[in-house]
Amino acid sequence: MRRLGGLLEKELRHHGALLAMLLAFVGSIDLVLLFGASVGPRTITMLEAHANFTRVFLPLVALALGHRLVVREYHERTQRFLEALPVRRIEVLAVKLGLGLAVLGLVAALSLGASALAAATREPLTLRWLGLVALRTAAIVTTLWSALFAMGLLGRWRVPTYLAIGLVLVFLDQGTAFEVGRFGPFGLAGERLVLERFAVPWEELGVSAAIAAGALALAITLALVDEGSVAESLAKPMSRRERIAVGVVLALALIGFEVVEPRRDKPVYAMVHPQTVHRPDARVSVQHVDPSLRQDAEALADAIAGDLVRAREALGYRAPLGPVHVASRPSLPAHARESVALADRADGVLVRAPFGAPGFDAAGLRAWLLERVVDHATEGRAAFEPNAWVRAGSAALLVHERPPAPGLAAFHRRHRAPRYEALARYRRTEERFGAEVARALAASAAFAFVEVAGSDAWWAFAREVLAPPPPGVFAMLRPTARARFEAAVDPAAFDAAWERALTAPSDVPRARGWIAIEPAEGRLRAVRWGVRFEAPPPPGARCALAHAELGPFDEVLADADLAREEVACGALGEDGATLAGGGYGAGDRALFVVELATGGAPVRLLAERRELD
Amino acid sequence: MRALYLKELRSLWPFLILTGLLLSGDLLFRPFTERLDEQTWEGIASYLRPGQDGTFGWILGILSVCVAYAAFPREHDERTIHFLYALPIRRPWIFVTKAAAGLTILWAGVGLLLVSDAAQSVWNSQSFEGAHWRADVALSHAVLQATFCAIVYAHGLAASVLRRFGVLPYALLLFVAWIVRDVLPPAAWIDPSALLVARYEGARLSIAWGPWIVHALVGVVAALTAYAAWMGPAEAIGLGLRRTQASLAGKLALGCGGAGLVVVSFALVGIVTQIGPPDAASAEAPAPAERPSRASQNHRTARYELTYPVSHEARALALAADADAIHAAIQRELGAEPGPLLAADLTEESAEHRGIASWTHLRIGLAAEPDPIRLRHVFAHETAHAFQHTISDQRQSDAGDATRFFAEGGAEHLADRVVPNEAARRAARAVAAATWARHGMRSDDLLDERRLRERFDTTLVYSLGERWVDALSRVCGAGAVGDALRAMAREGAPRDLGPRAFWEDTLAAFGCDLEAVDAAFAAQLADDALALADAIEPLPRMSGGVVGRDGGVLLVAARLDRDVPASALFFVRVRATVDAEDTRTFSFRGRLDPADPRRVAFRLTRAVLPSTRFQLQLCALVDERGWPFCETWRWATDR
Fold this sequence. Notes:
The complex is a heterodimer.
Chain A: H1 2-39, H2 48-75, H3 79-84, H4 89-120, H5 127-152, H6 158-175, H7 184-188, H8 202-224, H9 229-234, H10 240-260, E1 276-279, E2 284-287, H11 294-315, E3 324-328, E4 338-340, E5 349-353, H12 362-377, H13 385-399, H14 406-415, H15 420-424, H16 426-433, H17 435-453, H18 455-465, H19 481-488, H20 491-501, E6 511-519, E7 524-533, E8 542-549, E9 563-568, E10 577-578, E11 584-585, E12 589-597, E13 603-611
Parallel strand pairs in A: 2-3, 3-5
Antiparallel strand pairs in A: 1-2, 4-5, 6-7, 7-10, 7-11, 8-9, 8-12, 12-13
Helix pairs in contact in A: 1-2, 1-4, 2-4, 2-5, 4-5, 5-8, 6-10, 11-12, 12-13, 13-17, 13-18, 14-17, 16-17, 17-18, 17-20, 18-19
Chain B: H1 2-24, H2 30-33, H3 41-44, H4 55-69, H5 73-77, H6 81-85, H7 91-121, H8 135-159, H9 167-183, E1 200-201, E2 204-205, H10 209-230, H11 234-246, H12 248-275, E3 296-300, E4 304-309, H13 313-334, E5 342-345, E6 355-358, E7 361-364, H14 372-391, H15 395-398, H16 404-418, H17 422-438, H18 443-447, H19 449-455, H20 460-476, H21 480-488, H22 499-508, H23 514-531, H24 533-536, E8 542-550, E9 553-560, E10 569-575, E11 586-593, E12 596-605, E13 613-621, E14 629-630, E15 634-637
Parallel strand pairs in B: 4-5, 5-7
Antiparallel strand pairs in B: 1-2, 3-4, 6-7, 8-9, 9-12, 10-11, 10-13, 11-12, 13-14, 13-15
């Protein structure tokens, strides 16, 4: 006992100043935390200051203590002086372990005591509640110190070991069902550390005790085996080669982690509502909810199932297409559809549409849905801008006997001569004229291609463009859609056929949209917009200004990203209307779109990306 | 000197490899895993994204500190610094040369990042998403990153004097910075990692020069301190310190002095935070109520331990009389066990909220709510939260962004059922229906808190959330709210799902279908828009923004598209970035212009704005029983 006392005295003499400063420092931190808790808008109890201290600063203090009591002793080889004394190694170890535990315990107790004192002035504290917080804190202190004490004996390998443990924990947490946040000491330090007032966390306490025991066993083994030579050799400084190797392994591990992206299995999406028509062989589900829509749902499911079979044959996909899920959404306008991004590839495609509604275009939905299905089959490559028109054209050929919506394609022709550029820059065409116009234009081009070169040539062309892509950079090495197009069809003959197809009259009223940006108060700018019709607008026609603030980098904006102000076209006077909601100022970038809807999907009379002066 | 510089570079080259791997390591795998012709520049370079959090700043900062720690400590500990002192080079130049070598490594890493990101992003030739790379933006970012490295490097040199203990004061300072940031959002710039958060005006990078200059000056002070410590009187100081430490008085002086320093810093923080925005947090809060007394009293019921201010005893006891009945009704609605006793602290005083709950604790502002029905509603709402936490075994809060609308909407739904208040419910539903229709919202905007926060008013989690939970109950049965909470806590429930997948899985676990619920929700809102047309009509659309300055005040004006009742309240919310939490958003109240009844003027104190480039949102509270109607968030500039 005297020997232990002597050792303890030596440790206190050696580290006393540091420990005193550490305690003073910790006291100051506690004050800061208490202040933070008292002014924090969502503080539920002042004991949260102790929780924050335990989660953030206690490990830092433990690291500092471990460094001072263990790492430095071995690193500077001063433990040899201790070994020369008439004391056993286990006694040296016990004194350091006990001293560290006592200091850390004292620090934690001070933190808890200060928080409890602050809490007592404004909350009803109970002994049981405080006892539970103290019990959890004690278990955290013991486990933390035992683990760091053992790690300190790993010498130069302790930092790589910390990193390795950290990576493994992240991997387990993200890649398996194991929950680090609820495991043993992490669970003890979780949200319930200062909020649980009744239940004793037996399981977490048991796990923490086991970890502490394991760490102590490791520490004793390292310190005592072969008369302590293992710990001594581990404490030698890391050579440059070792440092580089560790750095490179770490960086590669991080990169590997990024590439592998560990993810737990998740259930595959399925429609579970009883009012759902399933075609399991075709991997199609159509949910109708309203029993009166059962027949529509069945007809739609059968038609989609047929489309999937034909598409797979025509495009030469080995794997079956889908799964496809269609949900009824009666609140949508008859022409509208929504695509929903599902979490995983295995989930397939989910779309919403108001099937069964008056004026609903089932064939239009099927063609649009096929585009989503082909996107899914090609991991999104079919939506790559140079390929997108081929996707839309193929879907139209599979669903329609003749070019759909010729009036919309002719509307495009009214503004632009048919050029391949309008197809190759499909997103620009979509933004300028509207998605349905772009789709109709692509369909007219596909039908013109078939007229010139035949159906087999189209599908050979489409199979090449819409093939599932090889990984990464190898997809870029394949010939472009344009190169394949020029090889598959005579461009001059195609242009002539396409031009003929677009001569049909358009049913879109002749009108011009306009936008005027006018100075308003200060730096504000008023946005006025309107539509000038060559003839009075048809009854029921709706005009709209869609707009969105643009970021510093251009991107494709979906309809859902645009704010929209809609009025009856007849109500728009010569002066148009002023944007009522939102507000733009000088220097802002924005997209402005003037739309016209005469019963079906809206077409765009004007679309401009502007930087406001 | 050149030889010394080269020698330093040689010793630091492993850091160059590490820096290159951490900053540009994606070059090794991205071309093989992703199609570069579909990748955008900002998709590859996360630091370009507007308002992106400071993660990149942290990585760069830690790298800079590591390189700084490699400069002097080891040289001193192994006494090899004396070899350098023996060279015919003056000490300032030794310091400068070592620092230059460290910065060369860091700046080389930044340069490599610039090149590797450019090289990966030039392949995309699509109409809108291609050709994003712009030399001015790229170089501006690179210069900012290089400056940031230099600032942090200077701090690293200073911290390394205390070896590993040098990290502790910086950890404390960062912690203080976080507290200040939470309490006083305009002071967020104190956190250096926020320096690299990108903000743009139009297509141009907007640089907040003030914070950069302050941090650069502090960096210079840190570098001078490091010089003094490492090259100047370091050894004399060290010797003096050791002598001082040898005596008990010296130990005490050092300990108390160090603690005193921290306490002074703490006091300064306190003063700064007390200054605060004078008219900010209270703009949306209810009218100031009688303040509760400091003295409190406890009261126990079968299900609650209540603590209330003595000054409001009658109100508290009246509430306590109904408390167990409210508890029982919510328990019945959820089909749950009674659960543990709840601690209800009724002494809360907050301009931010009427009540909060966590696990089995409730805090409610009894004094701020004189209306007994509304007080019971808040009490029921917070009690519902406590049930949510215990039934879901806290999985509801673990799921974070996916569940906030359900937590708040569910609590509102239950509180409405237990403490009906038809007028308030009608007002809330009118705002929900109007916002849904006017902003063209989709259910995914509600399901994902991040999406909601990006563009919309986050208080919609209450009104729209209540409507969604109502739809859930109608489609999947009256007990569906409790069933959903139990499904979250079930054995083997998958974790870390995205919001949509989370709800698909949770609802499917008890035979309920998310699409069916969403369809009913959307249909209900469309019906509400018709049924509540008279309540929606008075809600004005607002357009506006910054119109100028008046000294230390930024002038914001909003134009209304219709006349509004004189009792309507207007306020503008301000936040630094699209992902700023509600507690870092603050509000200024506006006034109707007497000369123009469709113009609202706001005066924003410039000193409390989060940065020169910020977001604002215009809101109008027409019916005080409900929620405000708000336009979407927009960017604005203080100029």
